Amino acid sequence: MHEAIVYLHPPGRLLALVGNPNCGKTALFNRLTGSQQKVANYAGVTVERKEGRLTSAAGRTLRLLDLPGVYSLSPRSPDEAVTVEVLRGQARGEKRPDLVVCVVDATNLRRNLRLVLAVKRLGLPCVVALNMADLAERQGLHIDAKALGQALGVPVVRAVAVRGDGADALRLLLDEPTVWCGPHGPSLGGGGDAAAQPEHDARGDHVAVRDMLGRLGLDALVPNTTSDRIDRVVLHPLLGPSILAALLFMVFQAVFAWAEAPMGWIEAATEWASGLLSSHVPAGLLRSLLVDGVVAGAAGVVVFLPQIVILFFFILVLEESGYLPRAAFLLDRLMGGVGLSGRSFIPLLSSFACAIPGILAARTVANPRDRLVTILIAPLMTCSARLPVYALLIGAFVPQRAVLGGLQLQGLVLFALYLAGIVGALGVAWVLKRLSAGGQTRTLMMELPRYHWPTLRNVAIGLWQRVTIFLRRVGGIILALTVLLWFLSSVPAPPPGASGTAIEHSLAGMAGRALAVVFAPIGFDWQICIALVPGLVAREVAVGALGTVYALSAVGDDTAAALTPLIASSWSLATALSLLTWYVFAPMCVATLATIRREAGTRWAWITAGYLFALAYAAACVVYHATVWATS
Amino acid sequence: MASPTCPTSLDRLPPHQPMQVIAVTAPPGAPEWPGQLQEIGFLPGEEVCVLTRGAPGRDPLVVRVGDSTFALRRAEAACVLVGAVQESNPSRTRHA
Q1: CB–CB contact A206 B90 (8 Å)
Q2: pTM value?
């Protein structure tokens, strides 16, 4: 018997925004829907789906779908395929839109109008929103919306997405019953027969658009003077890379310097909450669960927010302004050498704060192989959770002295650890290129849009969406794992009169002792191995766990201070360097692996964990034995 | 600089020399490139010019086509056949 899947669609008419990339579509979407947006995925694919509510001028509520940007209706990437499937009514779980709003960049009519002709051929009712009309006028291009509408056979309204009243004409138009009735005027290619091969007539559409623009007196090219002037500096062979390096340095400085204070507040709030719980809940298993499981788990999620917010703020500003594609252009050769394109740059940059938003950002990489490689190497970027571990070990084993004329040795070691991660990632990508990219040709063909001033509103909406996605996707995983690991390190309770700390007798302790056999060749003792187990939730937890293993009573920042002399005297330099190397490469974060599983599938999560483990083990082994040999 | 013999391919143009697209050809092993290049605007009659090139190896290129700017790899630009701008071309750059 067949089982029919019935999708229930929410009531209300559905509009879809369609347009070329960089036509200001998302800005218009934000202008039309404000904060009334829902971000999710399309069924079966990891393509972001944004839907919002929009109110027409007469007060009717409509649903608005922001489809991924396309140049034509023959898709090049999974994103573009979604747009085409939705417009054809073939997307799983999606209703075919009742009306398509074609967003057109008024400063680039030739390319944008070709898409309008292709969409019109699909037979859906269609209106055109002439975006950036103010910009075109400033460049001397005065567009008569009515005349253009008559020529196209669909209603055309002016819109300026960055202005408050910029979308009012569109809201007004949506109340006219005629716009919902299907193509107007002379129908090109015969209405409902939608699949009439819109793929193969870019040339035909090109001729039609140029004829039309010629008749309307709109065929002049719009000069890009300001953008060209900026590009002369930004894309200069010598100045360009220097500006990019300076920008990245500034972003990093900001991520670490500005986030320090809010992270301190979050830690203080956590201690306050733990203290409050401790004084109100009687000592025992419940209190331990609440304090060490729930509160610690929640804090472990929230403590990364300041860095993620700051990093994404910069990424969004650079994206809105039009700089990011230029950065990708400047880095294309470097990334091309290891089989990636400049597009992988943004996800990898995000991974320096946390690999999870980086892996999510890999969706913007169009080529499926490149996207997978980007996801696989993202955990090698030094995320901020490694910093507490690095700080502890560097503080204990690297002397504080100046070398090479004023440079701090400790700072240099930290820099070397970052570099080791980057070099490791490039190496892995290079190997994967050898293994998988054979004969494959990838395209760049990337648009460098005009520069725009970023608007605070769009940056704020983008930031809010990324933060909520991070909390929703990651919050649950980290919280659940923290509670699970609390359980593993608390039961069974030590037998009365037993020597040693409680954790030694727990399940985690037993696992740690078993692991010590595996890790002995790279110089880890059983105390380190026990600390590695809770460190799987989030790397920085290992510092606190070491404190527990060594039965320290100090909490928070004091743990590291108390641990420093202890480990400096009990570990050899070889062990410390080996552990540092281990942390550069090891798959020590279950939340990252869970995210990879969601994005790329179970198989790739296991492959990532496996190769990272092998890489970390081999590298730590080399470092350990080399140090033992050098210091003996 | 001496003007290159016409027609030539886009990757061989000196910077800032306006030309016109004549045709787009497929390289061996990438039959889908001409379609994609046409969709982003490399269509017969469109004005093109190379704006700048990447630092190491002069790759990729920044190309103006019509009203848009695209970054293309050298191999991609090599698919675009260009010739001298025809006087009958209806489009002319407006000087603001």
Answers
A1: no
A2: 0.81
